[in-house]
Amino acid sequence: MARVRYEPPHVDAPAEGSALAFERTLRGPVVPWTIASPAANSMPPPAAIAQGELEALRREAREAGRAEAEVAIEAELAALAQQRAAFETNAQASLDALAALRERAIEAWRGELAALAVAIAEALLQRELGQGLPDIEPLLVQALAELDPHERATVTVEPALLESVAAWARARWPAAVVRADAALGPGELRVSAPSGAIDGTRAARLARARALVLGEVDTP
Question: What's the whole-model pTM score?
Answer without folding.
Answer: 0.43
